[in-house]
Design brief:
Transmembrane segments: 26-44, 50-67, 79-102, 163-192, 228-250, 257-276, 282-305, 317-343
Organism: Bombella favorum
Membrane topology: Multi-pass membrane protein
Largest sheet: none
Order of helices and strands: HHHHHHHHHHHHHHHH
Number of helices: 16
Subcellular location: Cell membrane
Shape: elongated
Radius of gyration: 29 Å
Strand content: under 5%
InterPro entries: AI-2E-like
């Protein structure tokens, strides 16, 4: 009898455990998710420098290993020189852009003030001789010259007092920007000093979540982050320096300001060629023809650079499409700030890779070798 009662209770406990067991993982995942959301909510004010510091740390991690080997195994020396490299590559260009705008604030304000009063010059004689369309361009040009363009600019350009207010507000936020840069460097020091333990933790978490696929996705995230960050930053630096040389050679007024605008445009994925093309048009009407020709040559090289340089750098690490880079950069900038320019494309590419893996569709990296193998077999 006692044995029967014991078996009855045992079977009841087993049935209850079987009934509860499907619920426990759900509750555990729910609690873990709530804890993660609470942690993100707590560190939300520090999220931009944390994300920015993590992005730069991932990008420069191979440099840390090389420097550590060159510094006789000293991690502190390697981190110190890596921080200097990060300041030169990522922070110094942004600070120089801000300083350039601050130094030329009066000239920029004066130019914006007189811009609505400017008129297009008379159309060159050769425009009317363009086959088929020359006769239509001249009347439209004269219409813009007399009426439409000045009126349009008066509606588009804000009043000078509003522009000065925006500039003063931007100058006031310069201190907060420097503070964010400083916090980013602190985050980099902490991450790079304990990089191995953080890497082991991330590998264990990815293995628990996705096994071999999770570890592969983590490795892909590292490579993509490095490729996008170096591609966007180095392209913006090289193109803006090249544009600055052309602006100086062509005698463009406020050439440093125009080069700073070019740098911002390259970082935001608009490219820098349009800035030089507008400068060419400006010099054509306001300076000798040779100045415009020099500027046009630099602008044509910049057009080729927009379509060649950044994809060349990024594709050394990962085959990511230009559309993903642009959409990710715009969306990341709107949601995460400046760090989102680099994080946005990485997240979109990882999402695309994960969806391809679930659907069984090979990625571009997998399609390339297989195609080459088929051709070699033939």
């Amino acid at each position: 009898m006692i044995t029967r009662f014991r078996n009855l209770f045992t079977s009841a406990e087993a049935a209850a455990g079987a009934a509860v067991s499907p619920v426990r993982p759900v509750l555990t995942a729910l609690m873990a998710g709530l804890l993660l959301l609470a942690a993100v909510w707590i560190i939300h004010p520090f999220l931009p420098p944390i994300l920015w510091g993590a992005t730069i740390s991932v990008t420069l991690w191979p440099l840390v290993l090389r420097l550590q080997a060159a510094c006789f195994g000293s991690r502190s020396a390697a981190v110190f020189f890596t921080i200097l490299a990060a300041i030169i590559i990522f922070f110094l260009p942004a600070v120089l852009v801000i300083i350039i705008f601050a130094r030329h604030v009066d000239a920029v304000s004066h130019f914006i003030t007189i811009l609505p009063s400017l008129q297009l010059p008379a159309a060159p004689a050769w425009v009317g001789r363009i086959p088929y369309v020359g006769g239509d361009i001249i009347p439209f040009w004269d219409h813009l010259r007399e009426n439409s363009l000045p009126g349009l600019l008066r509606h588009v350009i804000p009043p000078p007092e509003k522009i000065l207010h925006v500039l003063l507000a931007s100058a006031g936020s310069f201190g907060s920007l420097l503070l964010e840069f400083a916090l980013t460097l602190v985050v980099m020091v902490l991450l790079l000093s304990r990089a191995e333990s953080i890497i082991v933790l991330l590998e264990k978490v990815s293995s628990q979540l996705g096994g071999r696929s999770g570890r592969a996705l983590l490795k892909q995230a590292e490579i993509t982050t490095r490729g996008v960050a170096l591609g966007v930053t180095l392209t913006a630096i090289l193109e803006s320096l090249f544009g600055w040389v052309g602006l100086m050679a062509a005698g463009m007024p406020m050439g440093s300001v125009v080069a700073a605008v070019m740098f911002i445009s390259c970082v935001l994925q608009f490219g820098g060629a349009w800035v030089l093309l507008l400068s060419t048009a400006w010099l054509y009407f306001t300076a000798p023809l040779m100045h415009a020709i020099i500027m046009l040559l630099f602008a044509l090289v910049a057009v080729a650079g927009d379509n060649f340089l950044q994809p060349l750098i990024i594709r050394r690490y990962v085959r990511i499409s230009v559309i993903v880079i642009m959409v990710g950069a715009f969306g990341g900038l709107a949601t995460l700030g400046f760090a989102g320019v680099f994080i946005g494309p990485t997240l979109l590419y990882l999402t695309e890779t994960m969806i391809r893996g679930w659907a069984g569709v090979p990625s571009e990296e997998e399609e390339g070798p297989s195609t080459g193998a088929k051709l070699s077999d033939k």
